[in-house]
Amino acid sequence: MSKTIDNAPYTAFHRRLALACSGGPLLDGYILSIVGVALTGMRPDLGLSTADVSLIGAAALVGMFVGGALFGVLTDRIGREVMYTADLLVMVVCSVLSFWVDAVWAIALLRFVLGMAVAADYPIATSLLAEWLPVRHRGRLLGQQIVAWYAGSVLAYVTGYAFLRLAGPGSWRWMLASSAVLCLVFLVIRRGSPESPRWLAAHGRVGDAVRVVEQHLGVRVNGRELMPDPAEAGRPGGLRLLMTPPYRRRTLFCGLFFLCQVGPLFAMLTFGPQILSSFGMPGGTVAETLGTGLISLVFLLGCYPALRLIDTWGRRPVIIWSFALMTVPLALLGIWPAAPAAVALLALCAYAFLCGGPNVLDWTYPNELFPTEIRATAVGVATSVSRIGAAVGTFLLPLSLTGLGTGPTMLIAAGTTALGLLVCVLWAEETRGTALGASPAVTAGPTAVTQRVPQPTR
Fold this sequence. Notes:
The structure is a single chain. The chain is mainly alpha-helical. The chain has one domain: MFS general substrate transporter like domains (Growth Hormone, Chain: A, Up-down Bundle). 75% of the residues lie in helices and 0% in strands. The chain contains 22 helices and no strands. The two termini are 22 Å apart. Pfam families: Sugar_tr. It comes from Kitasatospora cystarginea.
């Protein structure tokens, strides 16, 4: 493990890399949210059934399940830099093609491929960022990646609202194609981003690792310092290592808390207008779109206090208390399905604000809990597992609202969130201030004292 990187000063290089890596989360938030607005015009134009709407809403999430598991392993094998722009090119092509399609199966297929590309970006970009960051800034900057997700979601609703006002629901094709513009912007920003020195050293390219550290951090580093712990050499890599004790528990924790969080969350963002309509939100699709956009904005705002708390209070207490409090507004709406639209909007905004804790830890935890040789694999697997819940929730939510009603649907969401609380109480570890991917022998339990990185004196 590299103390030089862990204790390096925070520079413009880190800021630029963090911005470049935020492209994947921002595009994910935009792509998954814009379809919720586009469906208001797509449904009457194409004569979509409820099942068709569910399929289109869930297709990208199923693609993310496949892409996360597949490309996480590939990223650990062939490197972060190799795939850093290819996934954005795929997003550009799929976004442009979305403008021309009419068949439900074609739209669902493009959304599936988009989901694969977005999921590929998570293990690539977050692993690359984590392996370059100083330890004092790691939690904040990894957490800020989810801020980019909500920024993308808010931008999607603002864009969708503008299209609705200027061109009406028939502009849904332009909405789906608009993500190509963002992809091109981040293709430019990512030019020149370097490979991870930790990955280079772990794969025998110590000289290249030393060179990129000197080039981008302006300091000399001993190549041996970048090498993995000798005790970890020779272990089986990839998915097999994730399933060995104690990584098995860490793998289950990262996947399950992520799943329990995003199942209700993605369903809410994808079908926010429909949920608010079920509570009697007046004003038609424009008002419902604005209401969902407000909820997305509150999701974004809730991340900021959480970013501070994970570095002052700690990762474990933040995630436990967040899940506990997130359950309350969902349970309230489940018990009171006839609540006025204003109360429902307020309760959903409260839920959105309280989601800040798990949100900023979604990628922080898997990047901090696993070593370099399986870090991207762990992020990919956690993303894939989470998208099972997101896909199921997104597919079932419109069916549940129609078949079971608003109250039972909200109670199911509350129960899923309560399960996430239980997972965190049992398995959440404290990784604040620890060396990246500290040995599990050091951090064997949720309350264990972890291996701290000494901070440079001032």
